[in-house]
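User: Need the bound-state model for TUI:
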Amino acid sequence: MSKMKTRITELLGVEYPIIQGGMAWVAEHHLAAAVSEAGGLGLIGGANAPGEVVRDEIRKARKLTDKPFGVNVMLMSPYADDVAKVIVEEGIKVVTTGAGNPEKYMDIWKAAGVKVIPVVASVALARRMERHGADAVVAEGCESGGHIGEQTTMTLVPQVADAVEIPVIAAGGIGDGRGIAAAFMLGAEAVQIGTRFVVSREAVVHENYKQRIIKAKDIDSAVTGRSHGHPIRCLRNEMTREYVKMEAEGKSFEELEYMTLGALRRAVQEGDVSKGTVMAGQIAGLITKEQTCKEMVEEMMAQAKTLMKWE
Ligand code: TUI
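Assistant: Bound-state model below.
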C-alpha cells in the first residue's frame, strides 16, 4: 500500500498517519513495537509507573523494533518528573502527554530534540502548547476511553485546527477507515487510536478484557468521577453501577478513589471485568474482532484512502 504523507508522517518518520494511545497498563512494549512495525507510531504508556519501569519497557521495545516509537507521560503520575528524565536519557524522539499541562518539561525535551505532542481537550490548552513550542497536538474528544474532557471529537478537532498552525492529530471515537477519513475532513493530519488496539493480537491484555470490548454495544459506555472533576470513561459493569450510586450519595473523592484504586490493573491483568475498571472508548461497539496490529492498520488505511480518493 502506498504511503500517506502529511505533516505528521513527516514529523514522526512513519508510513501511516496513525499513532497509538498511551493507555495505562495496556500500552507496554509488545503493543508499542507492533504498532510501529505496522507503520504507525507505537507508544509506551508511562501511566503511574516509576521511571525505571518505563526505561525497561523502552529497552524491551527496542529489541522488538528498529522503527521509531514514543512514550506517553501521564502528568498526574507521582513519577512524571522521573519519566520525563528517562525519556531524555534513553534518546526517545517523540513524547505525548495526557491529563495535564506539560509546560515544565518543554525546555528539557526540546533541548534534547524530542518532538513534543501534548494531548489536549480544549482550544485554550492547544494554543498554549503551541506558544510553548509543541510540535503538534492531539485533540482528544470525550468519546475516548479513560480520562476525558467535555468536548466531542466532532466539535473539538475543527476548532483546534483553526486555532493553531501546528498539525493536529484527532482522537476519540476513531476505530476504522471512516473515522480516519472523517478526522481528515475536520482538519486533522493523523489520528490516535486506542480502543481498537486493545483487542489486537499483540496487546498483552487479559482475554476477558478483550472479549468485553468485542461484545460491547454502542450504549455500554459510562463516565465515572464527573462530580469530583476526574471523569473516566469505561464500560458499564458492577464497578460503575456501584460508583454511580456512591457518587449520587455524595461520597467523598477519597472514598471513591479508594474503590477504583488498582481496579484498572485488576481488569487488564487479572481479567476482573465486573469489579475492575474496563477503560474503553465509545467506539467499542464497532470493534468486533481480534486482529494483528498490521491487519488493523492496513484495513483502516485502505478504507480511508478509498473514501478520500487518495492514491
Ligand atoms: O490522559 C488521557 N487519558 C487517560 S490518563 C489515564 S490514567 C488515570 N488514571 C486515574 C485517574 C486519572 C488518570 C487514563 N486515561 N487523555 C488525555 C487527556 N488529557 N484527556 C483530557 C486531558 C486533559 C484534561 C485537562 C489535559 C489537560 C487538562 O488540563 C490541563 C491544564 O492544566 O489546563
